Amino acid sequence: MKVMLISPPASSAVKEVLGTTGPPLGLAYLASIARLEGHDAVIVDSLAEGIDLRELKLRIRSFYPDMIGITATTSMIPDAYDVARVAKEVNPDITVLIGGPHVTFLPEETLNECKYIDIVVRGEGELIFRELLRKRDLREVRGITYRDGEIIKSNPAMPLVPNLDEIPIPAYDLLPMHLYRFGNLRFGTLITSRGCPFDCIFCSSSLQFGKKWRAHSKERVMEELRILHYEYGVGEVEFLDDTFTLDRKRAKEISREIVKEGLDISWTASSRVNTFDLETGREMKRAGAHTIYFGIESGSQKVLDLIGKGITIEQSISAVKNAKKAKLRALGSFIIGFPEETEEDIKKTIEFSKRVGVDLAQFTIATPYPGTRLWSIASKMGLLLTKDWRKYTTLDVVMKSFYLTERQIKRMLNWAYISFYLRPKMILIDLIRNRGFILRRAVPAALKFFLRKEGVKELRKEISKL
Ligand code: SF4
């Protein structure tokens, strides 16, 4: 069988700001499985390759697959539907599958919204995909929701992969690896663990990958790193684990292995402020880590408790301090606009972002993604403003607040960026440490975004407040 795995053409805020995207690893795992099962697989990363729907259609026509698999996050869902439509225009007999976090939690809605999709793959995709390739009768395939004539049927869930090392190495050779770049370096990603025992209200990770944390062995992690570095010349790596430091002992062991191997890579990883300490930071730094990402989320303890983050303000201060002592850059994520958050709470968050000492800050608007507890609450309480999935970007307001208007939340998001990055101290640090990256790339991209949404008059008003 010929299998084509597709990341749809879509606009990406990440690409706009950083000028890069990461490899669609989920598709690369599936491609590996397809090949092991004896099928012919290709991957099209439309975003990295800069191809539009018309060109994608030509690719589908030329490869003429029997099956296509599409991956999409919530904001890319309309783009995924377009891909399904053009695939069926090429050949109505192509089997069209879709996977990813959004469709996992809205499988029936997805099939109702898009008549060109045949099968929704729910949750962790690898074992389900293998079963789909092996079995002819869809009734026997666990973890899918599919059409049986006019009826939509859902099969029982597929258990999670018990031992992650059983999943084959992603088919990096099918990805346009030369196109993933970070500055002058080739850029690669890897996932060394899955699942999360925490329960943040805005996140669906534990529902998709389980509450039990599962990890690859350090031997497997090193094997993937070697492939990325020696075969593809990757110099900059991002560990995409939800919390790379969940098991600090393991994080340190991997760091030591990188040093022992003499791998010349620089890298970033995510942590939680309560699963990070100075010793771990130092080992990571020694192994080439330069930036650590913390979900700090709020400067108001009341909000942190409401969103079930399970951290304290003091833990954030201490984690950032330790990261800096270890000479790591700290990137803090902050979320504003939860329904019960007041203007005062948001102001506290913006002030805290400056006080906590992070080097970089990412501000987003609370977004009730399907599958999250926030989604259930917002749906039950009638707080959803739209189901226009394109707006589920974390930069648009899609959920009502009890205290603030849509416009107020957007203005506060803009204000958060402007007041964090356009401080004289930040400008100076940016010029010295990043050769003005933020001023050259991030700020113009943010301003472009702002101007598109608000216009010149609003921008003048915001700047005059500085
Ligand atoms: S935000 Fe991070 S810590 Fe919280 S549930 Fe999601 S993955 Fe776990």
UniProtKB/TrEMBL annotation:
Superkingdom assignment: Archaea
Molecular function per GO: 4 iron, 4 sulfur cluster binding; catalytic activity; cobalamin binding; metal ion binding
UniProt keyword Iron-sulfur present: yes
Keyword presence, Iron-sulfur: yes
InterPro entries: BchE-like (IPR051198), Cobalamin-bd (IPR006158), Cobalamin-bd_sf (IPR036724), Elp3/MiaA/NifB-like_rSAM (IPR006638), Methyltransferase_Class_B (IPR034466), rSAM (IPR007197), rSAM_horseshoe (IPR023404), rSAM_sf (IPR058240)
Gene3D superfamilies: Cobalamin-binding domain, tm_1862 like domain
Span of domain B12-binding: 10-143
Bilayer-spanning residue ranges: none
Radical SAM core domain mapped to chain residues: 182-396
Name assigned to this protein: Radical SAM protein
Protein species of origin: Candidatus Methanodesulfokora washburnensis
